[in-house]
Write a structure and sequence with these properties.
Bound molecules: pantoate
Structural class: alpha/beta
Distance between the termini: 29 Å
CATH topology of the largest domain: Rossmann fold
CATH superfamily of the largest domain: HUPs
Radius of gyration: 19 Å
CATH architecture of the largest domain: 3-Layer(aba) Sandwich
Strand content: 15-25%
Strand order of the largest sheet: 1-4-3-2-5-6
CATH class of the largest domain: Alpha Beta
Length: 284
């Protein structure tokens, strides 16, 4: 695997179609699983490692977001990446850069309510990275569900010729979805954070037992100690919930200063699947 600092170096290393995994670094097993999915397509696997300033609000964690290029390189190489692309800000946003990708009204809902401009920042950097890396596929985790749906929409609406591949959420033994921000949690917060997947698991079990509306699914989530931002039931495409179609239950909350998001897809064709996916595992 090479570590490339410029798009020129990336393109010199490419042989065949590019499967792309955009990241902000601080890689963990969740990212490794995305890279393994990309590697399954053959061709060249390019992983970007860029903490994108335009998707952080003024009081968010841009400055303290974890950065560890050597650690990232080790994880990316072991998972099957061919190129780790770690550009400088000036390559991604050269002088005179003035274009913004506005992904439409869904960007102002759910996470967009508390993070105005966040998804425009994400869509802009992803489209810019597509231009620099020129992938045929891009792998996005379901953990960031709204981001995934928006990036599918952007690729379709702008006819970018990039297939957006959704990848399953990877969880810790107690169910907490892996996230680079989990490293901000102290031991007490880490214990409280496990209430997030537990709430989703309770809803998934109610779904397996036949509940289909918000009242039945969200009967008594134990979210004590968490500052809830939203817990919303939507259709799988993030339109209004329809009890006869696949749904997604999404949560965002704060544990101390750390913001966590998670979700579970509830599919009437496989009513038990979500509860099984969220079942607590024995620690390794
Ligand atoms: O999911 C992320 O890590 C980021 O939002 C992304 C897609 C790499 C864009 O900066």
């Amino acid at each position: 695997m090479i570590v490339a600092r410029s798009a020129e170096e990336v393109r010199a290393a490419v042989a065949g179609p590019v499967a792309f995994v955009p990241t902000m670094g601080a890689l963990h097993e969740g990212h490794a699983s995305l890279i393994r999915i990309a590697a399954g397509y053959g061709g060249t696997v390019v992983v970007s490692d860029f903490v994108n300033p335009t998707q952080f609000g003024p009081h968010e964690d841009f400055e303290r977001y974890p950065r560890d290029l050597d650690g990232d390189a080790a994880i990316a190489a072991a998972a099957g990446a061919d190129v780790l692309y770690a550009p400088e800000v000036a390559e991604v946003y050269p002088e005179g850069f003035a274009t913004t990708v506005d992904p439409g009204p869904l960007a102002d809902q759910l996470c967009g309510r508390s993070r105005p401009g966040h998804f425009a920042g994400v869509a802009t950097v992803v489209v810019r990275l597509y231009g620099l890396v020129r992938p045929t596929r891009a792998v996005f985790g379901r953990k960031d569900y709204q981001q995934l749906v928006l990036m599918q929409r952007v690729a379709r609406d702008l006819a970018l010729g990039v297939e957006v591949v959704p990848a399953p959420t990877i969880r810790e033994a107690d169910g907490l979805a892996m996230s680079s921000r989990n490293r901000y949690l102290d031991a007490d917060e880490r214990r409280l954070a496990a209430r997030v997947p537990a709430a989703l698991r309770a809803a998934a079990e109610a779904y397996a037992d036949g509940a289909r509306d918000a009242d039945g699914l969200l009967a008594a989530p134990d979210l004590e100690g968490l500052e809830l931002e939203y817990l919303e039931l939507r259709a799988a495409d993030l339109g209004p919930h329809d009890p006869d179609r696949a749904a997604v239950l999404l949560i965002a909350c704060r544990v101390g200063a750390t913001r966590l998001i998670d979700n579970v897809v509830l599919d009437p064709a496989h009513p038990d699947r979500a509860a099984l996916e969220l079942a607590a595992k024995e620690p390794a």
